[in-house]
Structure formats: structure tokens, C-alpha cells
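Lab channel / #folding
Pinned by the channel admin:
"Please post every new chain as: sequence first, then the C-alpha cells as a reply. Keep commentary short and put observations after the output so the thread stays searchable."

First post following the new format, from NK:
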Amino acid sequence: MIPFFLADAAATAAQAAPAVSTHAMSPMATFFCGFALLILFAWYIMSDGDRAKRIVGTVLIISLLAFCFQLVWPPFDGTGPDGNVLKDEKGNAVKPGRITLGLDLRGGTSFLIELVSEDAAGAGAPTISTDAVQQAIEAIRKRVDTLGVSEPVITPQGNNRILVQIPALATSQIDAAREQLQKVAKLEFRLVHPQSAQLLAGAIPWDAGFVRAPYVAKRGKDKEVQPPTEIVVRKKPDLTGDKVTGASAPFGPKGYEIDLTFNSEGAEQFGKLTTEYVHQQFAIMLDGEVISAPSINEPIPNGRAVISGSFTEQDARGLASALLNPLKTPVRILEEHTVSSTLGAASIKMGIYSGVGGLALVLLFVVVYYRFAGLVAVLGLVANIIVLFGVMAAFGFVLTLPGIAGVILTIGLAVDANVLIYERLREEMDAGKSIGVAINSAYDKAFTVIFDANATTLITAAILFWRASGPVKGFSVALIIGVIASVFSAMVVTRVIFAWALNGGWFKKITMLHIIPTGKNFNFLGRRRLWISISLAIILISGVCFWMRGEKNFGIDFKGGDVLVVSMEKPVSVEVVRESLASVNLGDAVIQKETTPGNIRELISVRSPGGTSARILQHLQTAMPDAGFQQDLQEHVGPTAGAELARGSAIAFGLAMLGILVYVTLRFEFSFAIGAIVALLHDVIITVGVFALFGRELSLIMVGAILTIAGYSINDTIVVFDRIREGLRAGRRGSVQDIMNASINETLSRTLLTSGCTFLSVAALFFFGGPVLHDFAFAILIGIVVGTYSSIFIASPIVLWWSGHKGQSLRNEMDRTGGADLGAPRLPA
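Reply from TO:
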């Protein structure tokens, strides 16, 4: 018999609204402040008088920095004396910070879920309606709320995917969350054939007239189902789960039960069925399986039911949630990433250490080398960092570990604009100009190259933001904002400081150190065949190394699989872990020792085929209980997602090259575009080859690293090309080769200075950023060295060869097109 009573579904249906950190200013106030800043910037650009320009510029800078500072302060959640985040009874931060941290920094689990229509479940190209996606998002949101977590993030990804991020999810809850997210919960009620047992036993033939069409045999869900194997039910449901309006999991006389309430339509249908089919069995089916088949002993008109069985509390609550919030479309988990809060906190600490360390090294170098001008650059860099984090907070961008990498890389790149200005300033002072005239001339002449160099970096970063997802998208956001902030700080902040210093008579001259002695003129192009031969040899070696490693070049992000990182209370050797896993047929897993950021704890990472990480963790905890194994990080990537990442990465890189080709052709000439693309490919191929030579794997973060190298390489090359263009358009005497040689020599100090500063900041990331960013920083370090080499020895010879190969005169082409000057706006003197 099915008992019925009034169900209290309020607890199950209640939705815990995620807490959101609020800014001190409303969105409307933020908009008007931003609009006022834009007006101030336009006023500054249009100001002619020196005094007006100084005053307006000062008001603009102070207003912008104050605006950004109040947006970003306090940046992170408040912590107590023990270092833990202060939280209220709902698990929300008592003193919420203004910068939202990604799961890799605060800990938690993310699932990338794909919706698959039933008619295309095996086709690989499901067609899902927008309504189906929205229904799934709402159902998943309600299910996640039942886990009792705070601030979950559930967002659509593309046309048929949903990203679910659950912060601070305990390891013990991960399996339950995974099951909840995938459970379709298609609830049906079907009448059981009165002679089901005889049909299954063969006593009655299936082709009998009264059986043939409307019935089918269905298997029970588990051994508790009566009958235990199969039962014959109607093919079409007599009542569906969409009529359920309430579901809860109370503890009844027989243990935990599922308490259901139907709507008026469902209650009417159920009443008619129980009245007409008294003394027959009524099967309750979930996702096509029979979970219970009780008998109807009397009519039931009130529309309330209880499903009883051998349910645990977790099973009962999960099933009640799934029944109340059914997914109408089947789903599958493509990717899963879990980071413990301990590892996240360590990553924040080491990210800050590496950022502060890299910044300190860069600032010290700049001050020592440029002296007073270096102090001005330091003030500009401080303003750059405040603006960067302020904009991130204003737009609610999430800061991830790769985002920290983007910030640190921005520190190095931000120096580039100042170096370009100061090296121009050195040339203007060497030409005998007064200090005031030299400063204005340096800023005016440097603007074009700063504009072109940063535009190409923005092209690659924008494509990365468009095509990437998750952590890499966070990196691209930090890089885009950082590039824009660095241009503003270099062209406006430092210029206004110089204007006040000149007006107040704070200095009479500017002195600087010299990396390249005055009068040195290296014949770079004279041995271009040697440099190109060396590069071709390195490219060949790189290709051979990559080919020999084969699939070992690719991490789980590309080929799919699991990564499990566990910490230990007592040290256990890699050999012991390998032997233990081999005893349960998991010997093909790749096992290695890792360290947390700052070497806080010893870790062991296990890379294995997909779907085995939970089994591995359970085995290690059971086989070696004294070791105290705890999960710190777990990742799962399905083969479909890996193939899509490989395809998407190739598309992103191709689009980046196409964008650079078009831009350089428009701003310079097609021969320069060919030189830029060849230098870019040169740098990427060698970086990947060296990466393979050191036995490292390509991953999702490496996609960001490779595109960053591409942007950095182009940035470096554009500076040289700009000087060549300037010489050709100015009608400088000598052959094209002589002009190219002179241009490379003139920009050599800038090339080495910028590369050195960027190398310092990334080196801090490499040594102090922790294992998660170790490969990323390593790739960038290689890219800096190779990119510096190609901008000096490879790019210009390719331009010279291509123009000669096509029978063109590069000088005549530049005269004819005018260098395709797009008339980039210049700041007034």
C-alpha cells in the first residue's frame, strides 16, 4: 500500500541566495564617476596651455586613483588571528573583499556540464534549445543549494554547456554533488501487468493479444526491489513527475522516505488511477528503472504519496531534490576540477610573494638605471597597479592563479612604455635639446611605437579572452586591463609628474646609465645567414624532440584523463605508492612528488586514465591509513573536452596570427607582416620544443603562455620595425640594409632593458609562484629569451629577404604607402 500524508517540502524547496560582495558605490554612481573621468581625460587631451594641462592632468590622475582605490579596498576577505576567513552562520565572509577569487585560490570544485538531447546522445553534436539550458540551470541551482554551500556560480557556457563552481566544497561532498548534477530524475508512475510474473516465467506468451502492444519488461534499480529482477509495466507512463510540486526526505517508521505532493492535475489523475486499478501493483520508476512497485489497496484521492525503501539520509535527500527539480535533458560531466582551501590559501600567499618580489626587483632596477626618471616610472607603476585592480573590482572580474600571473607579467611589460620614452629622451638630450623640449619630443615620438606594440599585444589577449575559458580567460582579462593601464600610466601619469617637476625647477638635467656603450654599431644583418641557420637547426631539434615524445607532450587538458594530488601527514615514497597502485591494476598511472607553494607540505600527484581518481584516493587511504592521505587537487577532463581544447587552441593561434598579419600590414607594409609572423612562429616552435626537451606537458595554462609569448614577440619586433619605418620615411641616407642595422642598434638598449625587466618579474613567478604556475613561468622565460633573439636577428632579415624576393624596393613601398599611417592620436605637448 502507498501511504499518503501532507508533506512539508519547504525545507527542500528553500533557496539560499548567494551572498554578493557589494561595493561602496551603486552601479549608477559608478557609471557617472566613470563618465566624469572620461570627460576629464578628453579635457586633458584637448588642453593646449602647459598650466591647464598640468592642472587637468593632476585632477584626472588623483580622481582616477581615488575612484579605483575605493573600488578595490579591501581587496580580499577579512581574516581572523588564525589566518582563516571570518564567516557568518551562513558561511559568507563577514568582511567581504572587493576582488572575487577563483576556485584555484579559495578552494572548491567546478564542473563543466554538457546537455545532450535524447535524439543526439551519441551524435556528438547535440541540439539543445535555450529553454532547455535555462531549465537545467535553474534545476541545478536548486540542487546545489541543498548542499548548504555559499556563493555558488552557475553560468551557461556556449550553446549546450553549463559551468558550475562550488566554493569550499568538502571532499566528502564531491561525490554527492557529482551525482546530483548528473541525475536526470525522470519520475514516472506505470501500472504493472496483473500477470507480470507469469509473463516473465514464460507461462503466458508475449504475443498474446492483451499483452502485445502496451507493456514492456523493466529492470529493478537494485536488489531491494520486489520482484528483484524484472517487472512488466506499461510502455507509456500513466502519470509523470512534472506533476510533483513538493518533495522532502523525512525519517519515517521504516527509515528515510521520499514524501511527494502532486498538483491538482496530478492529484486528479492519480485518484482516478488508484480508484480504477485497486489491488493492482503500481510501479514507481526513476530514470527508466523501477525503484518500488507497491499494491493499491484502496482509492487515494488526496494526491500525497510516500516512497519508502532502504534509503540512507544522503540518498533520500538527494533523490527528493532531484524529484523536485528534475532535469528534463540528460547531462554529462566533461570536466571536473577540485582544489582544497589549504592549497588555495598557499597559492594566494605565494602569488603575493612572487608578485611583490618581482615588482621589487623591477622597481629597484629601474631606479638604479634611470635615477630620477626611474623614480617617476615607479610612481607610474604604482598608479598602474591601483588602476588594474580597481577596474577588475569594478567589473567583477574573477582573479585566478593565472590572473596573478597576468598581473606579474604586466609589471614587466609596463616598464616597456617607460623604457621607450626614456631611451627616446636620451637621444633627444644627446641631440642638444633643452630638457623641456627633449621630454615633450620624447613623449611625442614614443607614442606611435607604444600604440603599435600594445595594440598587437591586445589583439592576442582579446582573441585569448574570446576563445579561452576558465583560468586562461582570467589571465587574458588581467593582461588586457594591465596593458591599457600601463599605457595610461606611462603616457599621462609620468608626463604630468615631469611637467610639475620642470615647472618647480626640481631638476636641471636627467642622467641615466648605459647598457650599450655609445658609438657601438653591430653589423647584425651582415651575418643574417648564420643567425637564420642557427634558428633552423634549433627548430629542427625542437621538432624532433616533440615528435619523439608523441602523446607524452600533452597533458590531460588535451587528451583527457584524471589528475589527483594528495597531501600526506607522514611522508610516503613514490615507489611505495606506485607498488600499491600496481597491486590493484592501476600501475599505468604516472606518479611523481610535488610541493605546495613555499614547500609547506609534501604532495604526490597521480595522473591516470579518466574516472579512476576516486578509486585511487580510496585505495591509498585504505592501504596506508597511517600516512593520512588527503585530497588537495583533483581534475577530470573527458576526451571530448580535450579534443575541443586542442581544436580551439589551434583556432585561437591561427586567428591571432591573422589579426597580427592584417594589423602590421596596415600599419607598416606586407613585408614587415611576413617578418613578424615568421619571428612569431620561430619563437613559439622553439619554446614548445624546449618545453618538450625538458619533459614537460602542454596544458590549458600553456595555451595562455604560448599566446602570451606570441604577443610579447610581436611587441618586441614592432619596436624595431617602427624605428626602421621612421628611418625609411625620413629619407635617411644609406641602403635599406644599413638603415635596418642602424635601427636595430638604436633600439638595442630598449630591447635588452625591457627583456631584462620582464625576465626579472617572471623569474620571481617561476621561483616563488608554486607548482601550478611553474610550467607557465618556465615557458614565458624561454619565450622572453627566444623573442629577444628573434627581434634582433630574425625578423629584420626576413623583411629584407621577402622584399628582395618579391622584386620590391622596401624604401619605395614605404614612400608609396606612407607606412599606412592610420593617424594614431598623439598627446599634445
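NK: The first strand starts at residue 100 and ends at 101.
TO: also worth noting, The mean pLDDT is 76.
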